[in-house]
C-alpha cells in the first residue's frame, strides 16, 4: 500500500509556492516548517468552490491586460475550512473585495491527495490527518487549509495535486 501511495501522479505547475522544509515524513502525512509568506485573499462560500479562485484570477488577468502590473501567477490556492476565505499567494492588489495578509508560517501536518477536492473528500482527508497525528503526540490547531495546486479548468482531475494542512501548536524532532 505504501508503494502505491508513492506512485501517485501529480501535475504541479512550475510556479511560486510558499517555502517549507519537510521535518518528518510518514506513510500518511508530512510535518513541514513553513517560512512566512504573504497571501491575497477573497471571500468564497465553499471550502472547495471556485468563486474566490475566479475573483483572484480575474484580478491577475485584468492587471496584466491593462499593463499596470506584472503579477506572477502562482501555483497554490489555499482555502480555509470554517472560515470561507480563498487565498492565493500574490505580491500586491488593490481590488476592493481582495485583501492582503501575512501568514507567519510555522509547523503544519500535511496530507497529499489527488483528484477533485469536493467538500466531502476534504473533510474525510482532514479526519484522516487528525486521526494520524494525534496518536503521535502532535497538537493540531482547529480548522484546516485546503491547498490546491492546479487550475481545475485545465487539469484532469486524477492529476490534480491537493493537500490538507493543519497547523500544529508546536513540533520537535524527538
From TrEMBL:
InterPro entries: Reg_factor_effector_dom_sf, SOUL_heme-bd
Lineage: superkingdom: Eukaryota
Pfam families: SOUL
UniProt-listed PANTHER family: HEME-BINDING PROTEIN-RELATED (PTHR11220), SOUL HEME-BINDING FAMILY PROTEIN (PTHR11220:SF50)
Similarity comment text for this entry: Belongs to the HEBP family.
Name listed for the protein in its UniProt record: Putative SOUL heme-binding protein, Regulatory factor, effector binding domain protein
Lineage of the species this protein comes from: Eukaryota, Viridiplantae, Streptophyta, Embryophyta, Tracheophyta
Amino acid at each position: 500500500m505504501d508503494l502505491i501511495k508513492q506512485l501517485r501522479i501529480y501535475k504541479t505547475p512550475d510556479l511560486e509556492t510558499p517555502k517549507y522544509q519537510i521535518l518528518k515524513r510518514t506513510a500518511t502525512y508530512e510535518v513541514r516548517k513553513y517560512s512566512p509568506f504573504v497571501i491575497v485573499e477573497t471571500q468564497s462560500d465553499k471550502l472547495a468552490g471556485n468563486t474566490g479562485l475566479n475573483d483572484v484570477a480575474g484580478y491577475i488577468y485584468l492587471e496584466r491586460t491593462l499593463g499596470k502590473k506584472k503579477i506572477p501567477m502562482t501555483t497554490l490556492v489555499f482555502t480555509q475550512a470554517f472560515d470561507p476565505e480563498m487565498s492565493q499567494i500574490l505580491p500586491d492588489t488593490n481590488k476592493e473585495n481582495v485583501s492582503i495578509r501575512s501568514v507567519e508560517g510555522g509547523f503544519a501536518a500535511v496530507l497529499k491527495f489527488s483528484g477533485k477536492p469536493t467538500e466531502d473528500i476534504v473533510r474525510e482527508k482532514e479526519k484522516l490527518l487528525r486521526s494520524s497525528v494525534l496518536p503521535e503526540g502532535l497538537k493540531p490547531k482547529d480548522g484546516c487549509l485546503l491547498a490546491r495546486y492546479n487550475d481545475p479548468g485545465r487539469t484532469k482531475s486524477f492529476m490534480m495535486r491537493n493537500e490538507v494542512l493543519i497547523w500544529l501548536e508546536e513540533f520537535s524532532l524527538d
